[in-house]
Amino acid sequence: MAGLEVAGRRFRTEEDFKAALRDQAKIEKIRAQIDMEQPGEVIRLYIDMQSGRYRFETAVGNDFDDEIYELAQIYKRQGYTKESILPVEKKKKPVEKLIGKKATGAFRKESDQKTVVTGSDEDDNVGRPDRDTVRIDQYDEEMQKVILRELHKREKRRRMMVVFCSAVAALCFGYFGIYYYFADRTETDYENLASLKGNTTLAASPPVVTIHRTGEEEVELTVLEEYQTLYNKNKSLIGWLKIDDTNIDYPVMQTVNNEYYLDHNYTQEYDKNGSLFLDKDCDIVHRNTNLIIYGHHMKSGKMFGNLNKYSSEDYAKQHALIQFDTIYEKGTYEVMYVFRSRIYNEEEVVFKYYQFFDAASEKEFNSNMQEMAALSLYDTGVTASYGDELLTLSTCDNSEQDGRFVVVARRVE
């Protein structure tokens, strides 16, 4: 097993090792086709990877994914787009090294005598031969003590600042290390879960769920064959959400609160990425008017990290259909409204999309539709009537405090 290593990653099994070799071959092929010094090519590659065009099986691929993500972000911050092309001479231009000033304080040795820089533009004068200086021994003894004491204080503050900045840097590196660890693990875990969809090898017999409400007859529902293995592994599974040509292809969980799956994954391990989860007040059996699914807006693009791409009307037209299967039935939805909102205080009298689960009347339903239509960033041309079933996807939005980005769709199948 000692030789099962690829690109600095060690693998436990021969199967994982072979998968890593496949990833490495795929990466080498991509590198041969892409010029990493061309911003437009890198950004287009990043977009393709986010859309799911390139799929990797192991951490080797995830490392490459993170590399492209970080490089694309650097190019974007520099103002480049997917259309940018650099001329050869600029692309190959060597990076100039910046040389800092050598002087680190107000005193330096000159002819074995300590001197003090005078004048208001102290930093600009450092190192210049024509600057005005006075030797410290020109001051009386008391003044020399005051000057040296002040020097000592400045040096002490400088050292404390260096220690503080070093500690902050260590914490930041630690945070990003943890972040990318969870991102890497999450990607691998969900790829494995996706492979279990439709796999019935672990489903000894079709799971049957008995639903009972006070005053109502018992209802027995059979879990769809496609999700039987996944359901047997975790009974909190409530469905699966998929949007074609995007990375959104995840199981949807539900439990008695809206906190647990904020920082736990499908296997119930702690995970900063969390999971997609259905609001605790939603009922897929006695169907609500509106089902609400939440997910984190991860910078890596995972979970609902790319949901805000729906702010583009063109993107919405290209990704108009959303597939949300419950564990009991399949469903297809068409995007209807896209808007930004936020979490409001209890006393604020305003439309709160996250409290809209059922409409008691046609009038109430139409009122909610009008509220969402007024908030929508554009008109999709899709409308809903009383009795239609809705699906709402919700994630965080940094445009304001407690902001939310919301996509609402109507069931069409």
Question: Main attributes?
Answer:
Sortase, Chain: A, 3-stranded antiparallel beta sheet, alpha+beta, globular, 413 residues, single chain, 8-stranded mixed beta barrel
Main pleated sheet? 8 strands, mixed, barrel
**Shape descriptor:** globular
Q: Number of domains in the coordinates?
A: 3
Extended strand count: 15
> In CATH, what is the class of the largest domain?
Mainly Beta
Helix content: 25-40%
Q: What does the oligomeric state look like here? A: single chain
Global mean pLDDT: 81
Order of helical and strand elements: EEHHHHEEHEHEEHEEEEHEEHEE
Structural category is: alpha+beta
| Superfamily (CATH H level) name of the largest domain | Sortase
Determine the strand fraction and express it as a percent band. Answer: 15-25%
The unreliable regions are: 92-132
Cα end-to-end separation: 50 Å
Strand order of the largest sheet: 8-9-10-11-14-15-13-12
The number of helical runs is 9
